Amino acid sequence: MIKIRCLILLCALSGLIGCSSAPERDYQVNTYQRQASAWLAQGDRKRQLEAYQQALQYYDNAYRYASKRHDVAQMGLARLKQAAVYIKLGQGKLAESKIAQAAEFARFEQTELMPAIDFMRSKLAFSRGEQAQAQSILSKLQAQYGDQPEKQVYYRWVGWQYAPDRLDWLQAGQDMQLLAKMKADRTLKNIEILSFVIYHNVLWRVAFGQQDVPQAIETAITHFASLELTNRLIDCFEIAKQYYLSLGDEARAQYYQTRLTEVSGFGR
Asked: Are 109 and 81 contacting, i.e. CB atoms less than 8 angstroms apart?
């Protein structure tokens, strides 16, 4: 009888060991994945605020957690985001090393990193004055994403950044309307694309003496205020001040100078 009871107890314990404390359906553990994603998002925020050293550290954190899971897509993305920061800082060699590391993941693993790698190579080439190579890579990406309007707009505007003489203002207006509609419809996937377009719209309209500058300034200030990107607000206030000074509107220029001084005092 004792032996039978012991056998029953052992069977029961075996059953408990086999039971999960929470029901699993795909048997995936994604704790590290979530942490990597969170660090990537925080790195993006710091990069947009131009807090570049913090951004680099946060991307390193993202890489570490992604590496623990062998999530090569996130690992490569973290390195490419660091490359973007190094390009911004004028540190081409460091950017090149990060791009090369991402390329290794694309070479030996099944990832979708190559378009992002190509784009970063394009940015690096442009930063080095290799405009023809930069534009060639970008043209390939434009053809590759011909069916994705959001990316088409972004690559087109980056192309104008490479070669401002090719800027098509009619197309630019259509692009802005498209992105604004996508945002309103909640189909916009990357708010940074809209931010890039809105900022360069006001920057280039002033630089090239285009119409609708006041509306472009207002749109930019409203947009960056909604994202709490103080650094871009400061840039917009500076653009507005210079624009209205050029028109002889000293009162409005002084208004934006006051806003510029005040917000700058709070730090970027």
From this structure: no
CA 194 – CA 183 distance, rounded (Å): 9
Q: What pTM, to 2 d.p., does this model score? A: 0.86
Longest dimension (CA), the chain: 104
Q: Hey, what amino acid is at 70?
A: H
Asked if residues 61 and 81 have their Cβ atoms less than 8 Å apart, the reply is no
- Tens digit of pLDDT for each residue in 169-215? 999 999 999 999 999 999 999 999 999 999 999 999 999 999 999 99
The 3-class secondary structure across the chain, one letter per residue, is CHHHHHHHHHHHHHHHHHCCCCCCCCCCCCHHHHHHHHHHHHHHHHHHCCCHHHHHHHHHHHHHHHHHCCCHHHHHHHHHHHHHHHHHCCCHHHHHHHHHHHHHHHHHCCCCCHHHHHHHHHHHHHHCCCHHHHHHHHHHHHHHCCCCHHHHHHHHHHHHHHCHHHCCHHHHHHHHHHHHHHHHCCCCCCHHHHHHHHHHHHHHHHHCCCCCHHHHHHHHHHHHHHCCCHHHHHHHHHHHHHHHHHHCCHHHHHHHHHHHHHHHHCCC
pLDDT in tens, 147-173: 999 999 999 999 999 999 999 999 999
pLDDT over 80 at 62, yes or no: yes
Length of the chain measured in residues = 268
